Structure formats: structure tokens, C-alpha cells
Amino acid sequence: MANKGRKIGHGRLDEKITREMVDDGRHHFGRLVEIRGNVKPLLVSEQQAADLAAQMTDPATVGAEGDSGIPAGYTFFGQFVDHDLTLDETSILGSTADPDDVVDIRTPRFDLDCVYGLGKQGSPVIYDGDRLRIDHHDGADDLPRDDADLALIGDPRNDENTAVSQLQLAFLRLHNAVLDRVQSSPELRRGGESDFEAARRLTRWLYQWAVVHDFLPRIAGRAVVDDVFRRHGQDPVRTKLFDWRKRIVMPVEFSVAAYRFGHSMVRASYPLNAANPDVPFFGGANDMQGFRRLPAGHTIDWGHFFPVDG
């Protein structure tokens, strides 16, 4: 997992952007492009917005299932990544806010703070020693929950539907599995790391590798990713408009505009497993709604969502 020179491949994304660079873990939203002069935002009426939405719908395909060619799981992995990068707890829907004044509670470091929370000291309820807590319900693993069935996890948003909830569960399992490996292979630790710190670092590296080498090429396209990362030689990552070395912000053009494309990827229903091959995303007690204990029979077979070997 070496990262030679200045090229970022994987395994060091959270180390390139240090805690000090994001003001002890807190940074702001901002703009990708500086607005100069008397530029006013485009304000549209509800009817104009509805007319635009109608233009985005192809009548010939309404109701057709179709398939984008991107496996279904990447929709929810994208949601998981979003929850790892952005969280605005202050803005109110319908009100005007200056992005430079809005604190992003999450860090831009791909450090899985949506999984690890504030750490063992800051979020003790999600831990069992060095392990991340996992509950069992109706014979299946589930997120740890309180008496009101609310998930006890680093980011409550990762329980809002069955798929992202079980992705969160998968990362809890991943950390625990990596911890077992570290405890049996202490050479995986580096410096003065504890078993927990080594397991967290390696889990983050695996996640970052998946983002760079699997998620981004599928979503943005291989040519775009290669153009940005310049995989050959020792050139730094190419940045045309945004330089995180000068100012750490989460651009609103990305967080509340460009990255919202994932909403259009949600399908009407999903095959969760062999016994439940057509579960509606919305629509009744047996749908994929979250914020509740995992319903019986809703354990996801990830082979229906990702290209899984074995």
C-alpha cells in the first residue's frame, strides 16, 4: 500500500489532509468557483421547477425497469461516501445560508468518521472494547440499537434504508475482522499503534482503495479518473479549479448539486436475497425503509448488489 512520490493512489487520503488542516476536524462548506461582481442566484418558481423536471423525464421509458449497467450497490455506497464527507446540522430548508458560514460536521479525509464516530472516548456507546458493536435480531446481525430501536452508530443517517444500513453493518464487521487479523499478526502495527489504531487505519485504507479504484471509475468513468490522478510518473494530482492544499472546504457545487446525481439512481425495487427477490424501496411495511430493526428476511445477499467473487 505504498504511496510513492506525490501521487495519491490509495491508503493515504486521510493522511494527506491532516487534522490540523481542517481546524481540529471541523471545516466549512464553501464555493468551488469564486463569485465576483453583482451575481445573483437563479430563483425559479415551483412551476418552473416542475416544468424542468418534466423535461428530464422520457415518456417512452416511464415505468420501464431498465438498467444503467452500474450494479445497484453503488447507489448506496455513494450515499455512504456522502455521509462520510458531509453533514450540515445548521441550515434550514427554504432559508438562505452563506456556505462559508456553515460548518461541515464531517471531515473531508475519507476517514470513516461515520463509522468510528468520535472514537472510543468520544463515542463509547458504539464500541465493545476495541471492537465495534453489532447486535443480533431474529437470527440475523443488525446494527446496535437502543430501546427505541434507534441505531447506535457514528452517523444516524446510515440507518435510513435497508441497503445503507447493511453497508454500515458491513463496515462494522470489516473493522472487527481486521482487528482479529492485527491481533494475530502484530507486525501489521506500525510505530506505537495499538491494535485498535492499526485496525482502524487498515480499514480506512481498504475503504479508500474501493473509492479510488472501484467507485470513482464506475461513476465518473475511467478516462476522467485517469486524467485527474495521472497514474503514470510522479506528477501531483491535477486540480483545475480546486486546490485543497490552500483551503480545506467542501464545495457546495459538489455537495448539494453535482453529487446529488445518486438520487436518480434509486430503483423502484431490489432483490435483497433469493427469498425476497422484489422488495419495493418505498411502499408499505415490507419496503426498504430504515430507522427500525432489520425485518425478518431482509438480510442482503450482496451478490445482488455488487460484482462479488465467491
TrEMBL record:
<keyword id="KW-0325">Glycoprotein</keyword>
<keyword id="KW-0560">Oxidoreductase</keyword>
<dbReference type="InterPro" id="IPR010255">
    <property type="entry name" value="Haem_peroxidase_sf"/>
</dbReference>
<keyword id="KW-0964">Secreted</keyword>
<dbReference type="Pfam" id="PF03098">
    <property type="entry name" value="An_peroxidase"/>
</dbReference>
<dbReference type="GO" id="GO:0005576">
    <property type="term" value="C:extracellular region"/>
</dbReference>
<dbReference type="InterPro" id="IPR019791">
    <property type="entry name" value="Haem_peroxidase_animal"/>
</dbReference>
<protein>
    <submittedName>
        <fullName>Peroxidase</fullName>
    </submittedName>
</protein>
<dbReference type="GO" id="GO:0004601">
    <property type="term" value="F:peroxidase activity"/>
</dbReference>
<dbReference type="GO" id="GO:0020037">
    <property type="term" value="F:heme binding"/>
</dbReference>
<dbReference type="InterPro" id="IPR037120">
    <property type="entry name" value="Haem_peroxidase_sf_animal"/>
</dbReference>
<dbReference type="GO" id="GO:0006979">
    <property type="term" value="P:response to oxidative stress"/>
</dbReference>
<keyword id="KW-0575">Peroxidase</keyword>
